[in-house]
Amino acid sequence: MKMAKLNIFGAIGFIIVSISVIQQSGGLGLGDFREPGPGLYPGLIGLLLLIVSVMLIIQSLFRLRKREDKGEPITAMSEGLVDVSSIGFERDKVMRVGLVVVLLLLSSVFLEMAGFLMSAFFLVFVIVRFIERESLVLALVISACSSVVPFVIFRFFLQVPLPTGPLGFF
Amino acid sequence: MFDSIALGFSIAFSLQNLLFCFGGVVLGTLTGILPGLGPSGAVAILLPATFHLDPTTAIIMLAGIYYGAMYGGSTTSILVNIPGEAASVVTCLDGYKMARQGKAGPALGICAFGSLIGGTFSIIGLQFFSPYLSQLAIDFTPTEYVSLLVLGLIVLIYLARESMLKGIMMALLGLLGGCVGLDLISGMERLTYSCVTLMDGVGLVPVAMGLFGITEVLENLETTLKRDVFEAEIKNLLPNREEWKRSIGPIGRGSVIGFLLGILPGGGAIISSFASYTIEKKISKHPEKFGTGMIEGVAGPETANNAAAGAAFIPLFTLGIPANIVMALILGAFIINGLPVGPLFIQQHPDLFWGVLVSMYIGNILLLVLNLPMIPLWVKLLKVRYIILFPIILVFCIVGAYSVNYNPVEVTIMMVCGIVGYVFRKMRFDPAPLVFALVLGPILENSFRQSLIVSQGSFAIFFDRPVSAALLYLAGALLLLNLFGWVRGVMKARADK
């Protein structure tokens, strides 16, 4: 049942994407099958995506219905939609992953500003020390190794100009 | 042929190529051994590192990672009962039981020898079949390419463990990803949403790294793998006469099954190992003993997955079509290096083809040498905590995505793909068809448009040409097969009610 609900959410996301693509493709010019325009192929793919997404919703609703027929109530509103734990994600774990996601996005935004070494070091340090709750020494060692070693490999051996940031390391 | 092989030897035996072949198989073995990073993740992460290498060296290393991972995966399956990579799932069934009975040594030994035999068999096949298949493929028109690509996508989706509808949705999303950027014919911007970085298209590297690297890290952060590593001393790595006698048939059959299934677009190592296990069980005089520690259940699948790994290079080198997701990433490496892969590839780049081929012979022997004496070291590595592994994956992903175009936006794209990939996995949407379609999308679109222009807008062209029609009928049959399965399930449920 959980998966059927997740499928419906997922399919709705895909429908939004497909409608957006179909709309954009129309603006690009569809042409015709003799002389396909730039929008024809993405438009067709978008249309197919829309159809398959609707099929997934129908299939999932059918499965939910089957459970209901067996006497298991559908509780999409009461137990489902707002409570993350009931749709296959466990709250504590999602919080942990959510924190890491925020850190990842921050590190990508600050990559050029802070430089590779600093952003990679702090990303790993915060995850290991505060999310994985490892000792300070271990967190420092892991962060230092995992930022310096790739830096040396890519900067000096592969000659990749990694961002150095305001401190101008190397 | 002999001149070509001599050319291959001269290239593969250069110091640089030998070192990168060795590096590739070691990295592949590590990837296979350590649960939490599959060969697709490892190839995706290391793809940018190869941009600065000679293309032959780069492909030698990436190929080494792939077939090395097939070797390494069995070690974890046998000693920990956790498959190091997906193709070794079936090895857990009898391999771990053998280890519990004190036969870890022969299990690991037969895996190594079976892998060597299967791997070598497929390289011989690659050597003899590829030049002839290339000649046949020269007659392929864009119409056949469309049908072949559609079949490849359908097979990949059909074999996906989850719902076929979800697989199709992911493949379609990948095809849409392939449309992003400037249209090759009209030069118009498509689906870029005014993002300058997207004008060059959606980069394969950030997407693959995000979906396979970052997603893997996020998923592992929320799970704790309990690794019950086999502690007893591992002895008798060389199988005895009786064990060889029981294994030689499964190894022979595994080589053939793996080779045949490995060639199929969308097929590959996973399906071939399962097929080999099923066949061994069916033809065995004691099928009931499978799952209790039968060496046949280890020898066959492990041989088959290595044979499939080698065979997967055939459609890549002859048609420019990847047989599986790792091959799609390697195709990406070819494209990024400006090497068009297709029927003329072997003629135009004999140095690369024969160099990679001979390096695979060397790599397979290196793997045997690596795998047997170094097993105690691998056992120690299995005890390495994930806390050491994931920062390395994370940082390599960041630096890798950045180094493609020195563009921080691509790092953000990778992070977003990682987050989306995590949500996809929670919802059981397999990312493999998406990446596969992303790589194949531009080829498919070009061939599709060319076919329509040639036929003056008639879709009948796809059914008028016999090879194209046969491929499409096969794809249709697979779709119908899945539909029948679903209808049968529904009818059975109704009957039960």
Characterize the structure shown.
The complex is a heterodimer of chains A (170) and B (497). Chain A is mostly helical. Chain A has seven helices and no strands. Chain B is an all-alpha fold and 497 residues long. Chain B is built from 22 helices and two strands. Chain B has helices at residues 2-12, 15-33, 39-46, 55-80, 91-100, 104-137, 142-159, 164-179, 204-221, 241-263, 269-283, 296-311, 313-319, 325-336, 345-348, 350-371, 375-381, 386-405, 408-426, 432-454, 461-464, 466-496, and strands at 181-182, 189-190. In chain B, strands 1-2 form a two-stranded antiparallel ribbon. In chain B, helix 6 (104-137) packs antiparallel against helix 16 and helix 8 (164-179) crosses helix 20 (432-454). Chain B is globular, with a radius of gyration of 22 Å. The mean pLDDT of chain B is 84. The chains are: A mainly alpha (170), B mainly alpha (497). Chains A and B meet through helix 1, helix 2, helix 4, helix 6 and helix 7 of A and helix 8, helix 9, helix 18, helix 19 and helix 20 of B.
Which percent range describes the beta-strand content of chain A?
under 5%
Number of strands of chain B: 2
Binned strand content of chain B: under 5%
What's the helix count of chain B? 22
Approximate helicity band of chain B: over 70%
**Rg on CA atoms of chain A, Å:** 24 Å
As residue ranges, the low-confidence spans of chain A are 73-87
What is the SS-derived class of chain A? mainly alpha
> How confident is the prediction overall: mean pLDDT of chain A?
80
The quaternary state of the protein chains shown equals: heterodimer
Task: Give the helix tally of chain A.
Answer: 7
Shape of chain B: globular
Low-confidence stretches of chain B: none
Order of helices and strands of chain A: HHHHHHH
How many whole angstroms does the radius of gyration of chain B measure?
22 Å
How far apart the termini of chain A lie comes to 55 Å
Biggest sheet, spatial arrangement of strands of chain B:
1-2
Helix content of chain A: over 70%
Tell me, rounded to a whole number, the average pLDDT of chain B.
84
Total count of strands of chain A: 0
